[in-house]
UniProtKB/TrEMBL annotation:
<feature type="binding site">
    <location>
        <position position="72"/>
    </location>
    <ligand>
        <name>S-adenosyl-L-methionine</name>
    </ligand>
</feature>
<feature type="binding site">
    <location>
        <begin position="122"/>
        <end position="127"/>
    </location>
    <ligand>
        <name>S-adenosyl-L-methionine</name>
    </ligand>
</feature>
<dbReference type="GO" id="GO:0070038">
    <property type="term" value="F:rRNA (pseudouridine-N3-)-methyltransferase activity"/>
</dbReference>
<dbReference type="Pfam" id="PF02590">
    <property type="entry name" value="SPOUT_MTase"/>
</dbReference>
<dbReference type="InterPro" id="IPR003742">
    <property type="entry name" value="RlmH-like"/>
</dbReference>
<comment type="function">
    <text>Specifically methylates the pseudouridine at position 1915 (m3Psi1915) in 23S rRNA.</text>
</comment>
<comment type="similarity">
    <text>Belongs to the RNA methyltransferase RlmH family.</text>
</comment>
<keyword id="KW-0963">Cytoplasm</keyword>
<protein>
    <recommendedName>
        <fullName>Ribosomal RNA large subunit methyltransferase H</fullName>
        <ecNumber>2.1.1.177</ecNumber>
    </recommendedName>
</protein>
<dbReference type="InterPro" id="IPR029028">
    <property type="entry name" value="Alpha/beta_knot_MTases"/>
</dbReference>
<comment type="subunit">
    <text>Homodimer.</text>
</comment>
<keyword id="KW-0698">rRNA processing</keyword>
<dbReference type="GO" id="GO:0005737">
    <property type="term" value="C:cytoplasm"/>
</dbReference>
<keyword id="KW-0949">S-adenosyl-L-methionine</keyword>
<dbReference type="InterPro" id="IPR029026">
    <property type="entry name" value="tRNA_m1G_MTases_N"/>
</dbReference>
<keyword id="KW-0808">Transferase</keyword>
<keyword id="KW-0489">Methyltransferase</keyword>
Length: 155
């Protein structure tokens, strides 16, 4: 199993990048005993102004073939943290790769969005993509702690 976050745009050094690195490191440590791999971050950037279609083409190149495709989208489903944990455990148990996709300023091209296995919403409000990275990495770490039975997550 591989776990990838495929995101449009480059996250420069700063508080968001620090938080993302911290959650990814915590997930990597906690996930080892559970058979969960570290999450790799694949950033794509279209410098030619090709819009969402060009971004989707770049994103498709970094999404492993056959991976469960999870798009982050305000129109998606609002999962609980235990529900996300159980989805992740399911992909692990099927030895299936998973790719979480975060779009750019205009969102995710409908061609890519429509073939997603799952669309996750962090509420109906639109968040900046770098904050979505922070929230997603925290939720992946939280899911890992739920699977580990550690007290980080409390209902
Ligand atoms: C600035 S938003 C783009 C919003 C754009 N209007 C759209 O239609 O998707 C950049 C990316 O952050 C993610 N995002 C923003 N708000 C979100 C939310 N509430 N839930 C899940 N993902 C969100 C999505 O991946 C989105 O493509």
């Amino acid at each position: 199993m591989r776990m990838v976050i495929a995101a449009v745009g480059r996250l420069r050094q700063g508080p968001e990048a620090k938080l993302v690195a911290d959650y990814l490191e915590r997930h990597a440590k906690a996930g080892r005993a559970l058979g969960l791999p570290p999450v790799t971050l694949a950033e794509v950037e279209d410098k030619r102004g090709g819009g969402m279609a060009a971004e989707a083409a770049l994103l498709s190149k970094v999404i492993p073939e056959g991976a469960a495709l999870v798009v982050l989208d305000e129109r998606g489903q609002m999962l609980s943290s235990p529900e996300l944990a159980s989805r992740i455990a399911g992909w692990r148990d099927q030895a299936r790769d998973v790719a979480f996709v975060i779009g750019g300023a205009d969102g995710i091209d409908p061609m890519l969005r429509d073939r997603a296995d799952l669309a996750i919403s962090f509420g109906r409000m639109v968040w900046p993509h770098m904050l979505v990275r922070v929230m997603l990495t925290e939720q992946i770490y939280r899911a890992t702690t739920i699977l580990a039975g550690s007290p980080y997550h409390r209902e």
